[in-house]
Write a structure and sequence with these properties.
14 helices; mainly alpha; 315 residues
């Protein structure tokens, strides 16, 4: 087990380093010049040069990356070009909102995916099974942002029952208001995610139901409900854990469009506005944070998977 953990930690460090390079190249390749945005289109060459020197943009790309990486290793992600606030403090102001949205979306995802996956796997020819298959097809094909717009039209405009824009309300401060403010963006995210998880769960259950230990349990007279719940579902859930972890990591960084659609004050909207403003420091720090969080979640999922399945850590 310890050797497995060491290997995974080394892979984590290598991937995070490569991810930092990709983050830097992405931000460096963005069109536009933040110095021009800051000083305005009528700025003189001297003013532009002074701004570039103050921001460190007059140095080579390699030198800029080295300085940025060294500071990031010490916890300093730089300063926003526009607000002059610390990037780290700016991220901490938005991460709780995105984390709460991700938890709500994952809760809805599991509440939909588990019964849908069981129904599609065990009763595929029934009316409920066919309805689930139709839902899975629609869920995979409908873009999340378009579904978000439809939800706004239906529940905010037509029914006037839920807000069109979502504010961040801490759940433990006001649970009811938090659910009311977050349910629409969480549902827009969960529809696609639940379709992915349910398909993996369906495939896993079908594969497990054909194994010898299921036939042995049935031959011993074990009730079908116990065969499904204790034997089939527990074994089929193992590969689904990885998919759930990937989806949860994607929620932390893949909600950019949804947060922009619902004007939700989270990390996604921060990155969206920072890209438009050419605020490279916030973009680099935010994307690096998302990459690190995604890798941490994947590492945690791998550890849980290895704990549940000894064959993984012994391979």
């Amino acid at each position: 087990m310890y050797a497995y953990l060491v290997r995974r930690l080394l892979q984590f460090v290598v991937v995070l380093f490569l991810g930092s390079i990709a983050v830097w190249l992405f931000a460096f390749a963005l069109p536009g010049d933040p110095a021009t945005v800051l000083t305005g289109p009528d700025a003189t060459d001297a003013e532009l040069a002074a701004t570039r020197e103050r921001l460190g943009l007059d140095r080579s790309a390699v030198e800029q990356y080295g300085i940025w990486l060294g500071n990031a290793l010490t916890g300093d992600l730089g300063t926003s070009y526009f607000s002059t606030e610390s990037v780290w403090s700016t991220l901490l102001d938005t991460v709780p909102a995105t984390a709460q949205l991700a938890v709500f979306a994952m809760t809805l995802t599991l509440l939909i995916a588990v019964p849908a996956g069981l129904t599609a796997a065990l009763w595929p020819r029934s009316l409920a099974g066919r309805a689930v298959q139709a839902y899975l097809t629609l869920g995979l094909s409908i873009p999340a942002f378009w579904l978000g717009l439809l939800l706004i039209i239906a529940f905010a405009v037509q029914l006037d029952s839920l807000p069109a824009t979502s504010d961040y309300v801490p759940f433990f401060t006001a649970p009811g208001e938090a659910l009311r403010a977050t349910i629409l963006p969480a549902l827009a995210i969960a529809v696609h995610a639940s379709s992915v998880v349910a398909r993996f769960l369906t495939s896993s259950i079908r594969e497990v139901m054909g194994r010898d230990f299921i036939r042995t349990a049935r031959a011993k007279g074990v009730p079908e409900r116990r065969v499904i719940g204790r034997h089939a579902l527990r074994n089929a859930a193992l590969p689904t854990v990885t998919v759930v972890g990937i989806q949860l990591g994607g929620f932390l960084g893949g909600t950019v469009v949804i947060e922009a659609v619902f004007n939700y004050p989270g990390l996604g909207r921060l990155l969206y506005t920072s890209i438009g403003e050419r605020d490279y420091a916030v973009v680099q720090g935010g994307v690096l944070f998302v990459v690190a969080a995604f890798l941490c979640l994947n590492l945690l999922v791998d550890i849980v998977y290895a704990y549940l399945d000894p064959r993984i850590r012994l391979s």
